[in-house]
Amino acid sequence: MPEGEADRMLVSRIEEGTVVDHIPDWRANTVSRVLRLDKLARMQADVSVVILQNVASRHLGRKDIIKIDRWHVDEKDADILCLVFPTITVNYIDEGKVSKYEPQVPDTIEGRIRCPELNCISNTEREPVTPRFSTLKKESLLQCRYCDALLAFASVPEYVRT
Ligand SMILES: [Zn+2]
Questions:
Q1: Among the four residues 75, 113, 116, 145, which has the most C-beta atoms within 10 Å?
Q2: What band does 3 get if pLDDT is binned at 50, 70 and 90?
């Protein structure tokens, strides 16, 4: 990368899309997994993704940032992301205007995360039911609505359905 290019990359604005900011340093790959950004490639969507890692941050010391040009991250995916990374902030950009979305720990999560219990009815190969979890906020746990299996917020990235 030529000199000066890196600075320009940090400051360049996108007109339409999403900026996920205040990601803990070097964790952008996990974020990209939780947000299922790989599906963008499968959709052959006309989007660009810029991942900045280990950027200086006033609040966190160091942080990662993900900029997604021409794609709005689903709010429900952003909420799941905040289970894992409570510091994250999400900005949606429409025609150059920024609106902040404050991700919130959801009460229930449907369809996006697999149950860790292999024998759960939501994991059966034939006619599986949609996985459903309740959040136990104080304990930082998800609880399967079918089999009561528990999943720590921190383990969520391993169980995101792709
Ligand atoms: Zn289950």
A1: 113
A2: very low
For 20-43, the pLDDT digits (tens) are: 999 999 999 999 999 989 888 788
pLDDT in tens, 78-95: 999 999 999 999 999 999
Distance 104 CA to ligand 1 centre (A): 23
Please report which confidence band the pLDDT of residue 1 belongs to, taking 50, 70 and 90 as the band edges.
very low
Quote the ligand 1 centre to 67 CA distance (angstroms): 34
What distance in angstroms lies between residue 162's CA and the mean position of ligand 1's atoms? Answer: 18
Residue-range domains of the chain with CATH: 5-101 (3.30.70.140), 108-159 (2.30.30.20)
How much distance in Å is there from the Cα of 80 to the middle of ligand 1? 18
CB 65 within 8 A of CB 20: yes
